[in-house]
Amino acid sequence: MDFHKLKAFVAVVEECNISRAAIRMNMQQPPLTRIIQQLEQELGATLLKRLPRGVEVTEAGKALYQEALTILAHAQAIPKRVQNIAQGLEGQINIGFTNSVGLHSFLPALLRQFREAFAAVSIHLEEDGSNSLIDSIINEKNDIVFLRKPAPIGLGLNSLHILDEPLIVAMPNNHPLAGVNTPIQLLGLEPYDFVLYRRLAGQDLFDNILASCYQAGFSPNIVQEAPRLTSSLNLIAAGIGLSIVPEAIRDFWNKQIVYKTLQADTPCIAPIYAVYRKNLNNVRIQHLLKLLHNIEMIDASIK
C-alpha cells in the first residue's frame, strides 16, 4: 500500500478536517480528497463520514488508522536499523568455546563489557569441541571462538593468545595427598589413578595434560574418562581417581574435592586463544579483540 496515501489518511483522521489535513500535508484539498476516495475504493469500505464541519472516522477507518500507524512507524525505523546493522550496532554475534574455556570467568566478564558497547546486538553462544569450532569459523557459522590451542596454519585464521591458566590437581578429600600443605610435584602423581576429561570432547586440554605428564617423566594411569570436564568432578568426588584440571574449576565445585597447586620443571598451564578469520571487517569482532588486548581490565572487572 502507498505510504503517501497512508500518511494522508492519518493526517485527516488526526485533524478531523480535510482542509487542516491538507495544510499539514502541504498540499491542496482536492488532491487529498481524491486520495481518501481512492483508499475507500481500494479497500471497498467507507473510512470517513463527511460532516458539515469536518469528518468522523468509521469503525473501518479506525482499523486502518491503527494499522497505518504501525506500518509508518516500522517504515520510519527501517533506514536507522539498516544503518545500525551496517555499523555493527545491531544484529547478532556468534561466539564458540570449548567446555573448559566456558568455565573460565574471563568469558562472562568479556561478554558483559561487550554488551555495554553493543546493547542491541544479540549474543549467540555455542559450546563444542575444538575441531568443530575451527570448522565453524572457516564456514562462517561462528565469528570468533575460544580454544585451548591456536588455529592450524594455512586455514586463513588468526589466533590471539589471551591468557595462560594454571593447571592444578583435583583429588578426593580422603586422598593420601589431600593433607599435603605444599605444592604437589607433578611427577609425584605417577603412582595414582587418573580421571580425565574425554579426549574426543576436550582434545586440546587432554593433550595438554598428557604432554605435561610426559615432560615430567611418566604416563598417567587413566582408569576412567568423563564426557565433560564438570562430570569428571563427580568421579573424583566418588574417590575413583584424581585429575589435573584448569584452575577455574576450583570455583565450580569444592564438595568432597581438594585442590592443590602443581609444580614441575615446565610450568603446567592451559592457554586460551581467540580464533577468528583474517581480514574480518566486523566492528563487533574488532571491539571484542580490543577488549581482549586489555585482558588486565577484564581481570579487574572479574575481581
From TrEMBL:
Sequence similarity: Belongs to the LysR transcriptional regulatory family.
Protein name from the UniProt record: LysR family transcriptional regulator
Origin superkingdom: Bacteria
Keywords: DNA-binding, Transcription, Transcription regulation
Coiled-coil segments on the chain, per record: none
Organism: Acinetobacter albensis
Family annotation (PROSITE patterns): HTH_LYSR
Pfam families: HTH_1 (PF00126), LysR_substrate (PF03466)
HTH lysR-type domain ranges (all copies): 1-58
